[in-house]
């Protein structure tokens, strides 16, 4: 019997276990693909010797796993954007994605046995299969919760990585934009924080995170123009009624994270001259509270000091 090969349906193309990718294709090749199986992303460059040593070992491990995990390789010389969003400062750098978000990473040229253990760990902890259609929003919500938890724990790198991935999927996501700006501000980069916040589209959100960030950026801008704390303290010791120096000292202390001390200086100024400069000390103290958040211990302490003064 003759078989008409041409009439047989074409077999689906096999999924590439190892592939090169770009910043432009990152969402499809990594974020979307990681909804089906975990994806390792190897950031490398042609001039990087350790990268050339690491790459064949990763490929060997991935091929061993026979589809349980995939590898995407990105040349950072030609595609610097994603690496920058993830905070990659040295290579080789390998990030693991599962369920549409980054879940783990390692840096440097590690032995094949450690690569294998890393891959096994990622595979074991990955969510099974592709989630139901329309679940991307849920993935984004979970990622934002994880980013906030990392930020609150002081892990700014992890927070920035997750916010960066959210913005890769949803460039106009207001929560991710605000979160990334807060990371930059916490890292001592207010100008970069402002630049990120400026990408926010109208209408601007009316929530505590946004108003707190805007107030904190305004205070950081004011503090950048002040004299050093030690100089201001010396001025006040020599002239306790130099209200402008005390006011400036409060701003400088706040910029260095010394919130309670900043509040105390403004309350002291009010005790000496409550009406100075059109009630400037009280108004600034209220700005502090807004920037710190109403549940911050410094806000609670400052409100008690203010109440004691106003109702004494």
What oligomeric assembly is this protein in?
single chain
Structural class label:
alpha/beta
- Give unreliable regions as ranges: 1-14
Estimate the mean pLDDT confidence: 83
| Helix-strand topology string | EHEHEHEEHHHHHHHHHHH
Biggest sheet, strands in spatial order?
Answer: 1-3-2-4-5
Number of helices: 14
The main pleated sheet reads as: 5 strands, mixed
Rg from alpha-carbon coordinates = 26 Å
Describe the structure.
This protein has helices spanning 26-32, 49-64, 80-85, 112-125, 136-152, 156-169, 174-186, 190-197, 208-223, 229-238, 243-255, 259-272, 276-292, 297-310, and strands at 18-20, 39-44, 70-75, 93-98, 101-107. With 312 residues, it is α/β, with parallel strands linked by helices. β4 (93-98) and β5 form a beta hairpin. It is elongated and about 75 Å long. The protein contains 14 helices and 5 strands. A 5-stranded mixed β-sheet has the order 1-3-2-4-5, with helices on both faces.
Question: What can be said about this structure in brief?
Answer:
This protein is α/β, with parallel strands linked by helices and about 300 residues long.
Q: What attributes does this structure have?
A:
312 residues; alpha/beta; five-stranded mixed sheet; 14 helices; disordered N terminus
